[in-house]
Amino acid sequence: MKLPESQNTSVDTLSNGAGPSNGHSANGTKNGVHASSSVAKLSLLGDSLYQDSQIGREEFIRLVIQSLRDVGYIESAATLEAESGYTMETPQVAEFRQRILDGEWTRAETALETLGVTDPDELNATKFLLSQQKYLELLESQQISSALSVLRNELAPLNIPMDKLHTLSSYMMCANPEDLRHRSRWDGAAGTSRRRLLIDLQRYIPSAVMIPARRFETLLEQARSYQQMSCLYHNSRAPFSLYADHSCSRAEFPTLTTYILQEHKDEVWHIQWSHDGRFLASASKDRTAIIWRIERETAPYVREVSLEHVLRDHQYPVNCIAWSPDDKFLLTSSDSIIKIWNASTGLCTKELKEIPDGHTDTVMSLAWLPDKSGFVSGGMDRKIIIWNTDGSKRESYGPTSIRIADLAITPDQSRIVAVGLIRTPTPSPASTSNPSLPEGGASAAIMPGSASQVDHRILLFDMHTKQEEVNIKLEGDLTSVKTSSDSKYCIVNHSPDELLMWDLDQPRMTRKFTGQKQGKHIIKCCFGGIDDNFVVSGSEDSKVYVWHRDTGVLLEILKGHGKGSVNSVAWNPTEERMFASCSDDGTIRIWEPQPLDPADDESPISIKGKERQRNLNDSISIS
After folding, report:
1. 3-class secondary-structure state, position 162
2. According to its record, what are the GO cellular component terms (predicted)?
3. Can you tell me whether residue 484 is helix, strand or coil?
4. CB-based contacts of 204, cutoff 8 Å, min separation 6
5. Of the candidates 366, 381, 360, which has an alpha carbon nearest to the alpha carbon of residue 445?
6. Which domain holds residue 116?
7. Residues 209 and 293 occupy one common structural domain
8. Residue 81 placed within a domain
């Protein structure tokens, strides 16, 4: 049940000096409520919560008292204190908290000395936090002389880093209180800053003396997170219950092909969902791209699935596609040519061909900017180009150090992650024939005529400075890169036979995913499911592979595609229980959970133009 907003005691909803916190009101009493003298103290044997429990009774009861007070059950908390004999906290803690909330800094520092902070470094840290808050509040109230005195006599003697001291002194130049709050990222004395100060000070005060705010909720949240992480098939937004352990069933996971889309006349190389999840675009070696409509409002087998548009007039096979953020336009690339299509009409509105300083070699990747201002292309000519929405060239990264095989933009638009190769020519005897390179691999883009040393790299670019931040060398082709929705990670298809997940902030490799087959073809992967809980990839053995992201456990090997590689996979952005795959067999498969009613277990529906046919499908699971 949702509590009234006035009872919510989180830092984000309480202003300084108002409302309950850890069971104490502004006057320092326990919210003005005293337990009735008629409540007798109950004496129990032992110190543990239960006879066979390792949880201490006192700690548990004190946390219950804190929780009751925080949500507004003040009398119940006072009664529990009286009956158990355990106090939520000592009068010294209550006094310290109130001094902070009232801005009585000298008395707060004195009270702090009674709370068990004895380490000299920790005492200095707490004094710095108190003096910093005092200094900022004096500046906010335009008491410049007093603020300067605090800076010189209280902050400077603490031997804080010089750059920090310079930053604090620069705030004296702020034009007004609003400018101060903006530059210091501080919400002022009337905001939540004093309560945030209490949270910061809490780190130095023994938790048995001053219980961290909302401690019971923190423990429950940790239990929830652990259960979610332990649930290998977690893919539901249903609320967690405290009454039972959380578990998601494999039956709710997409392991069954419900539709087979077959209109392409050759290998299908790339697929991508529209942002609203209602359309799927596919790119093929047959020189076409297709837009499919896949409605979600009804159950599998009865929903509307149809071919919307076939985008023709490409001179070469279509390598990749990208939906605009509003789903009004679709980009396609064919050799070095980029086309912009109206997704509603299926008409080409712009062709980017032979643009000055544009692409001169195959465009391998397309991606729209999250801010909707344009799109990015990357090619084997080592160029990364940013285009405006009308197709005019805005700027270019390059030439980069690699021939781009794929790129991705982090959702926060801070970075571009690119993968590809560097070709370093080496002298070779005239009698030596050209090296034979695997057909379809990224290395196949090396120009013939001389032996070459090939290095494969992951590059990380800062989108604000346009500078290369990271350059990671790996052995083996890198054919695909996708970023996580929180902009913290990327996954890369790496031959032979593995996917790598990289932390973009460190940067370092955090996990390997193995099992699928990749040696000579361009295979693409994706994140999928709730909170990107899964990693999915195609494979050269005609199967789709699904792993649990946080553990690397291989969950599913899905069969169904015909002979050849499964080239690309895409998880529906709005329907967590649906993804698609495409293959050299010329088809696209839609994967969904098994039907709840065995009577509804039908074979997949094949969509080919306006004609529907029945086909067979099977899948296997690796437990």
Report:
1. helix
2. GID complex
3. coil
4. 117, 122, 125, 126
5. 381
6. 89-213
7. no
8. no
